[in-house]
Design brief:
It contains 13 helices and five strands. By secondary structure, it is mostly helical. The two termini are 13 Å apart. It is found in: Secreted.
Length: 425
């Protein structure tokens, strides 16, 4: 297994070198990118909500041109990179747009919300969020009220939607801010882990079908990463070495059912394409390796000495994709990615004990490219870059085709010949 995972990381590293120029042609590959999910892809919606799940302050956005924007990381998220690769602008948060702006934008919107989940009650202990049903209600409003202002006929609108890409990344909070918090939510008292996974997936499938009914045809849907390896969960579960096995076992139950759900939807929804984003495949081996080689997580340790015995491929240079004007963050700064991920400790030196987010204006690690985690829950920009490059260009972690192939695929061509074989989780 370790050799297999090393080959995965090596393949992604090679992709980072192979594709030296970001696709930023004057003609985008798709007309729009629509985003649904949680804090992994939230671009600022929670800034407009009454919630403690809000990061519109320093040091968040340290590496983002505009500074803090509500993104739960130091710079770009995976969907920001995907938008760049597709030749689109960053997808704006829906709640940050005026009515007039909503009526003019046809390159996509972001409905994702930090702390949100598949279930309505998920994350409610932190305040208001946009649960998945609410996000789809806002997209319904977009389709029925705002987008028609830009198309002459309904058929033109449907053609536009069928060529657009829909990214959905949600489900983590249904465990982190619901099932695992037995004193705040009753889900763990009502369901076994197997039953809870089934409840989530049944609800999830219904919402994906709603998107399909509204005109979506090109989907990129992500499973769950190894939540038991998150610094916040390591702390919550009082784990001294390695990851929280019981939590990762819950994730495995969900991911197994998730894979079956996506396979079934590929069969049921003719003319649609469902790309499965295997977050667990990308991050599990790396995090397990780092965690097992540290005596737990030191929440006040920003940088380790670099002596961690990681597999060779982890130590490989992670270059920028290219010195391109379409990459405002890394343009001309290739040397910043000369290190692999060396530590699972958060880049923030001090975390809030309640939220596990960075405290306002705290110092951060000097080299953010060596850190997998930015705070107690969220990856650094370097990790999001690796995920986006792999999903866009190459056979993993997105299967059975990558996002570039999905973009170039003609709508309705559900019988295409896959270039890559989907792997079960």
């Amino acid at each position: 297994m370790s050799e297999f995972f090393s080959m995965i990381l090596l393949s992604l590293w090679l992709l980072l070198h192979l594709f030296q120029v970001i696709n930023c042609s004057s003609t985008p590959l798709v007309p729009a990118l629509y985003v649904f999910g949680d804090s992994m892809v939230d671009s600022g919606n929670n800034d407009f909500l009454n919630t403690t799940a809000k990061v519109n302050y320093n040091p968040y956005g340290t590496d983002f041109p505009a500074g803090p924007t509500g993104r739960f990381t130091n710079g770009l998220t995976s969907v920001d990179f995907l938008a760049q690769f597709l030749g689109l602008h960053f997808v704006p948060p829906y709640l940050g747009l005026s009515m007039a702006q909503k009526g003019k934008i046809i390159t996509g919107m972001n409905y994702a919300s930090g702390s949100a989940g598949i279930l309505q009650e998920t994350g409610s202990g932190m305040g208001k969020n946009l649960h998945l049903e609410q996000q789809i209600e806002f997209f319904t409003e977009t389709v029925n009220q705002f987008l028609p202002q830009n198309f002459k006929t309904k058929d033109e609108l449907l053609q536009y939607l069928s060529k657009s890409i829909f990214v959905v990344n949600i489900g983590s909070n249904d465990y982190l801010n619901n099932y695992l918090l037995s004193t705040q939510y009753n889900s763990s008292h009502l369901y076994t882990p197997e039953q809870f996974a089934s409840v989530l997936l049944k609800e999830f499938r219904q919402h994906l079908q709603e998107l399909h009914n509204l005109g979506a045809r090109k989907f990129v849907v992500f499973n769950l990463g190894p939540l038991g390896c998150l610094p916040a969960i390591i702390k919550l579960e009082n784990i001294k070495i390695g990851c929280a096995t019981r939590v990762n076992e819950m994730v495995s139950l969900y991911n197994k059912g998730f894979h079956s759900m996506i396979q079934e939807m590929r069969t049921s929804f003719k003319g649609s394409t469902f790309v499965q984003g295997n977050v667990n495949l990308l991050s599990s081996g790396l995090l397990q390796t780092m965690a097992s080689n540290l005596n737990g997580f030191n929440f006040n340790q920003s940088v380790v000495d670099g002596s961690l015995p990681l597999p060779y491929s982890f130590q490989k240079t992670i270059e920028t994709i290219g010195d391109s004007e379409c990459d405002p963050i890394e343009s001309g700064t290739r040397s910043r990615y000369n290190y692999g991920f060396l530590t699972p400790s958060p880049c923030c030196s001090i975390l809030d004990n309640e939220t596990n987010y960075c405290l306002k204006d705290v110092s951060t690690c000097m080299d953010r490219t060596t850190h997998f985690f930015w705070d107690g829950y969220h990856p650094t920009q370097s990790v999001y870059r690796l995920l986006a490059v792999g999903c866009f260009y190459g056979p993993i972690p997105c299967t059975p085709i990558n996002v570039l192939q999905l973009a170039l695929e003609q709508p309705g061509n559900a019988s295409h010949k896959h270039h890559f074989v989907s792997s079960s989780i």
